[in-house]
Amino acid sequence: MLAPAQTDNSASLAHLDLEQEITKLKREMNAVILAHYYQESEIQDLADFVGDSLQLSQQAAATKADVIVFAGVLFMAETAKILNPAKLVLLPDLKAGCSLADGCPAPLFKAFRERYPDHLVISYINCSAEVKALSDIICTSSNAEKIIRQIPPEQPIVFAPDQHLGRNTAFAMGIPLDQCVVWDPFMIMGGVTPDRLRRARVILWKGHCSVHQRFLPEHVDKVRERYPDIQVIVHPECRFEVCQKADGVGSTERLIKIIKDAPRGTKFAVGTEIHLVNRMGKEFAEEDKMVITLDDSGCLCTTMFRISPQHLCWALENLVEGNVVNRIQVPEDVKHWAHVALDRMLEIH
Ligand code: SF4
Q1: Distance between CA atoms of 268 and 232, rounded to whole angstroms?
Q2: Is the torsion defined by CA of 208, 210, 211, 212 positive or negative?
Q3: Residues 208 and 223 sit within 8 Å (Cβ to Cβ)
Q4: Residue numbers of the domain that contains 12
Q5: Are 340 and 134 in contact, with CB atoms under 8 Å apart?
Q6: Are 127 and 202 members of one domain?
Q7: What confidence tens digit (pLDDT) does each residue in 121-139 have?
Q8: Global pTM?
Q9: Mean pLDDT across the stretch 41-65?
Q10: Could you give the CA distance from residue 218 to residue 236 in angstroms, rounded to a whole number?
Q11: CA of residue 301 to ligand 1 center, whole Å
Q12: What are the backbone dihedrals phi and psi of residue 168, each rounded to the nearest 5 degrees, phi first?
């Protein structure tokens, strides 16, 4: 009987020690910890800022911190470095990648881009620094529509690397599906006929987020069968068929706001990363709102999950000892052109 109680107690004491240690090290190094919305609660509790990748990088720029420890994935830490070139940026685990960004390797993207010199290249912020540098403008899931609306209708577009965000956004703006074609970088001529390519307004890079693509239209039907009055809201990285069935589609910020603004007693099934959904489930239960995942088997971002308090502590401890580990570096020319593409978005945002 006694043993489990002792184990629980020692685990929570160990966590408290770790938390105190991280807070102390952070102060010593004038560092800030940025945590993405998809991180676990124990990481978010240690963070100075919690948000999406762009918000976090911008908040970091506004602080006087010398060091940014990014509890997120590689492309986010790179964006932080691009927007904060004078600060030291660390990613506690360099293996924290992203299936979407990794599905768009820069050499392949460069070759693709060179085939379409007359197209305007819009890249979702979830891509590598190199791909950003090869793009004309960057967008996020909250401003993609606003950015595409600025582009004259006769101007053809390349949208990368998330085909779903590109298609969902284009369709919501009235661009028909037959004017969006998918370019598969591993097929001859992208797997598209020259005629279709000529007629297309938007060429979509064949990429996806492994977390959001898992949601299926059947999940929407199933949850509605179980809770007929439920609201289904999903992230635009989900498949077109899922977004079409949903009651609402929006960025992480937007999804949170929809739930926040809803009357007491509203039920939501949310198609996004499981840690965020579970946290909202707990928080909004206090307002008598039910928030559950759209898919019972749950979709976690496994790469984001690689960041642990122990990794954070290790990176900071090393820094205090004068040993810089997992430093994010972006070559100067890449940094320059990626910044140009990001700035174009920020001017419109
Ligand atoms: Fe990448 Fe998807 Fe994870 Fe976001 S949720 S970091 S897009 S794999």
Answers
A1: 6
A2: positive
A3: no
A4: 8-96+303-330
A5: no
A6: yes
A7: 999 999 999 999 999 999 9
A8: 0.93
A9: 89
A10: 17
A11: 6
A12: -60, -40
